[in-house]
Amino acid sequence: MQVFTPDDVAGNAANKYLSVLIAAKFARVLNEFPRERTSKDKKLTTRALEELTHGGIDYRVVPRKRGGA
To answer: Are 46 and 24 contacting, i.e. CB atoms less than 8 angstroms apart?
Structure first.
């Protein structure tokens, strides 16, 4: 089992919190693709964190729009 430290995942994002959000969203994208599960397949979150630490995920931060009342 591979362990990802906050420094590992923050290396390719602005901070560790943003990197976890990016990996979680990427894992959701991976979940949409059909796949054949075998017992040796890695979990989607592990695959997403690996991609993030190796620099394989391109992302952009979109500012949040606030609704005015």
So the answer is: no
Structure tokens at 39: 């017992």
Q: Where are the alpha helices (DSSP H) in 1-69?
A: 6-10, 16-32, 44-53
| Cβ 19 vs Cβ 26: under 8 Å | no
On the CB side of 54, how many CA atoms lie within 13 Å of its CA? 7
Is the overall model pTM greater than 0.90, yes or no?
no
**Rounded to an integer, what distance in angstroms lies between the CA atom of residue 7 and that of residue 49?**
12
Compute the mean pLDDT over every residue in the chain, rounded to the nearest whole number: 84
Per-residue pLDDT tens digits for 4-21: 888 888 888 888 899 889
Q: Which of 4, 34, 40, 38 is nearest to 22 (CA)?
A: 4
